[in-house]
Write a structure and sequence with these properties.
Bound molecules: adenosine-5'-triphosphate, magnesium ion
Oligomer: single chain
CATH architecture: 3-Layer(aba) Sandwich
Distance between the termini: 20 Å
Helix content: 25-40%
Number of strands: 10
Number of domains: 1
CATH class: Alpha Beta
Number of helices: 7
Largest sheet: 6 strands, mixed
Amino acid sequence: MDAILKTEDLKMTYRVGKVDVNALRGVNLSVAPGEFVSIMGPSGCGKSTLLHILGALLKPSAGRVIIDGEELAAMSDASRTDLRRRKIGFVFQRFNLFPTLTAEGNLKLAEHIHGNGRSAVDENTRREILQLLRLENKMRHKPLELSGGEQQRVAIARAIINRPAIILADEPTGNLDTENSTIVLDMLRKLNRELNQTVVMITHNPEAAAIASRTIEMRDGMIVKER
Ligand SMILES: Nc1ncnc2c1ncn2[C@@H]1O[C@H](COP(=O)(O)OP(=O)(O)OP(=O)(O)O)[C@@H](O)[C@H]1O
Ligand SMILES: [Mg+2]
C-alpha cells in the first residue's frame, strides 16, 4: 500500500549563532496507513526535529516530505498550516492544553480550528472517542482540575477528535507515572487496533516501544536500526 507518510533524504540544519547543528543527516522513512511506529534514540539525536517536520510544523533544510500524497516542499506557509489542520493530530509531552478552558472547551476549540470556525464532528464520533478515553465525566474540568493522566487523555482526544490521518506523539508518557503511562499507551494501542489509526510516537520507554508494530532507532540525525 502507498505510504501515508514518507521522507526522502531529509536533512535539517539549525543555525545557532555562527554554528551549524546538523539535527537530521539524511532520513528515509516510510509509514504505511494503520502502522504504529515508535522512534527511539538518545537525547539530541533528532527525534523531535523529525516529528515536527513530519507534522509540517517545521520546514526541512533539504529533502522531501510527502504527507498523505501531498508534497510539502512546494507549499506556501498557509497551505502547510492547512494541511496540518486537516491531516495531523499532535500529542506533546507537556499536554499543551489551554488552562482557562474546560476539557470540553479544549476539544471544541480543536474542532473549530479544524473546521474553519465550525465543528464537523458528529455526536456519535465524539461519544465513541470520549468513551474510549474514559473521559465522559471529565468534560467540565479545567486542566488543573484533572490528573496528569487525564490531561494527557484530553490531549489525545483533542488530537484525534477530527479523525486526522496521522497521530504524531512526542513522548506522550514522558511526564506520567507508571499507571497513567499504561492507560495512555492502552488508549493509543486501541486507537491503532480498533480505528486503524496511524501513529508515530517518540518514546524512551521500552514498554511503550513494545506496543508498536515497528521501532526505529536514531543516532546523530540518522536512522540506524529498524525492528
Ligand atoms: N530550535 C533549535 N535551534 C537550534 N538547535 C536546535 C533546535 N532544536 C533542536 N536543536 C538541536 O538539534 C538537535 C536535535 O534536537 P531534537 O530536539 O530533535 O532531539 P531529540 O532527539 O528530540 O532529543 P530529546 O530526546 O532530548 O527530546 C540537538 O542537537 C538540538 O540541540
Ligand atoms: Mg525531543
